[in-house]
């Protein structure tokens, strides 16, 4: 799934590790990711966390999408910062799951993210990458 994620990969996001219900990704904050306050735009921090969440919840095989997510920004990130997102599955029940992602700069927490997943039933990555069914919209 990550190999087909042009949005994340186009921003320099790298997949470092993936296991059952886990993933570790990293991204360097570029000049184009900095907002008018001189800090990383929260949307890019969210994207990094969301991408780690996607890798973790899709590690089980069936195509799984976000049903919702929340983020708490704990500290600012700055141009040049190397951010690492560590995603961990908390639980899966039926077609749903809960995942926590910590975004770190070194040992410092930048953001905490909680994602809620929903398996849409297909085992084909082409469903989420191209053709969409009513169920996946």
Please give a quick description of this structure.
The protein has helices at 6-10, 42-57, 125-129, and strands spanning 14-19, 22-28, 64-73, 82-93, 96-105, 108-119. With 137 residues, it is of the alpha+beta class.
Can you describe what's shown?
This protein has 137 residues and is an alpha+beta fold. 19% of the residues lie in helices and 42% in strands. It contains three helices and six strands. The chain has helices spanning 6-10, 42-57, 125-129, and strands at residues 14-19, 22-28, 64-73, 82-93, 96-105, 108-119. Strands 1-2-4-5-6-3 form a six-stranded antiparallel β-sheet, with helices on one face. The radius of gyration is 15 Å and the shape is globular. The two termini are 17 Å apart.
Please tag this protein with its features:
6-stranded antiparallel sheet, disordered C terminus, alpha+beta, 19% helix, single chain, globular, 137 residues
């Amino acid at each position: 799934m990550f190999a087909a994620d042009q949005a994340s990969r186009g921003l320099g996001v790298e997949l470092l590790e993936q296991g059952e219900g886990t993933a570790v990704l990293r991204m360097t904050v570029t000049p184009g990711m900095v907002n008018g306050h001189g800090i990383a735009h929260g949307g890019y921090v969210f994207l990094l966390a969301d991408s780690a969440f996607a890798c973790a919840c899709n590690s089980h095989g069936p195509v799984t999408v976000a049903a919702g997510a929340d983020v708490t920004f704990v500290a600012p990130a700055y141009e040049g910062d190397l951010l690492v997102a560590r995603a961990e599955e908390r639980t899966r029940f039926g077609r749903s799951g809960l995942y926590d992602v910590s975004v770190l700069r070194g040992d410092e927490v930048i953001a905490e993210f909680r994602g809620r997943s929903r398996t849409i039933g297909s085992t084909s990555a082409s469903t989420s990458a191209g053709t969409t069914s009513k169920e996946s919209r």
